Amino acid sequence: MPFFLHKKKKQPTFPVLTTLAEVLQAAKQSSDFVKQVEASKDGEPIHVYYYQSLIDMERIAPNVLHPLKQVDGISNKALQEALYSAEVEQLEDVVEIEKRLLKGSVLISFKEKGAWQNWLVDLAYMKGREMNVPEIEFSVFGSKESFIEAVETNLALLRKRIPSSDLHMVKFVVGSETKTDVYVIYCASIANKENVQTVKQRIKGLQIDQVPDSSTILQVIQDNNNSVFPQLVDTERPDRTAGALLEGKVAVLADGSPQALLAPVTALEFIVAFEDYLLSWHTASMLRIIRIGAVLFSIFATPLYVAVLSYHPEMIPQDLFATLVVSRTAVPFPPIIEALFLEVTIELLREAGARLPTKIGQTIGIVGGIVIGTAAVEAGLTSNVLLIIVALAALASFTIPVYRMGTTIRIVRFPFILAAQIWGLIGIAIMLIFTLCHLLSLTSLGRPYMEPIYPFSFKDMKDSIIRLPIAQQTMRPRFLQAKQQKRFLPKHNRQQKPDIDDGY
Fold first, then answer.
1. What is the pLDDT of residues 218-244, one digit of tens each?
2. Looking at the structure, do residues 283 and 411 belong to the same domain, yes or no?
3. Which long-range contacts (C-beta less than 8 Å, at least 24 apart) are formed by 305-308?
């Protein structure tokens, strides 16, 4: 049984508070927790508790404090009448009261007929990052909106794009300590019931203490956690998410995360950018072929250099061989050391550029690459030919629209380089067979990862390596097993050519 579905529960890290007095006593240890005692017109005390860091301080006086002072004889009915403009709810469950306090509610307590009455008023105010253009999946065409950390805003973005009650959003609370809101989203009349139940079951069975980001959920609910290849797509674009939902996929949104998870997916979806659907089918198909070629070049360019120079120099054309000999004359290292040195250097530059502030990171990436590359060639540590190959391979890996898969391609390259040094071209072939077998064994929510290549599906090839015109995309992908396979009727989109004299 996977570890995240294990039924054995560990003891909670935080103490479990069973009475309201314990909750309030623990809260008083925090400087941002406020207790106020107001008095009604007849002098009866009303206790008000809240975290000032979580509520809208501009609303508490007009919506809560002032109306309470006008109450003549405090009671449940009088409170509801006084706070008619606010969202109030009476609760007795101590755990729920603590949860609501920590979500930005105000607790109002008073005695009625000798018993304490507890009411909560929702005044939550969570100021976060404003909506901005997508940073990772930026596109020239299409929407410039992206998800942010507030899950309510993200849900609204999807509701705006799919204004239908058929769009279901099911809430789960994940994380024994963080109590993070996680939503499973799907179109009930389209999505396959088995896919939906699988996602719900895996999220419901999670036994983890915190969910800082949706990436945490991705790592524990995907089918094979030991694979370097991602089996779910994460995206920051609401339009891409809405399009996936209408295809029959399932989306997952977590509070505090600016990305949605999409499942099930195939390997070819990682080379698809949402902008492809906003361009002509000729342009989109060409760009996809270029990306596939870039992936292959990024993986095999450096290993082929190592294999050919180490084991198969007879394969090099005579003119090119002379150039390689001249470029390697002053290099004292074998091709494998030379290649690993440059590959590691490129990775260091990438990491340094990613961790530094934007402007400094860009400078480090460009200037650092030029300076280090030139110095390495002049010092005789590497040849200029390999420098060009490694630089082009690094550039090619950036063409992949999904960052997570781009990182995977960077990692996969190193085993191929080592295999090329040990067995030459045979080593590359062995690694390729091993990688293909691994890819063929992978699944996403139990669906084949390499579909429509294996198992082969001619109909799904319409939107894979190439993209046919939208008018011909009448069916949803077969591997999703959607309840409604047909998207639209093609005959409704046919344009009738007007007669030459129409309009005169």
1. 988 999 999 999 999 999 999 999 999
2. yes
3. 305/335, 305/339, 305/385, 305/386, 305/389, 306/335, 306/336, 306/339, 306/417, 306/420, 306/421, 307/420, 307/421, 307/424, 307/425, 307/427, 307/428, 308/425
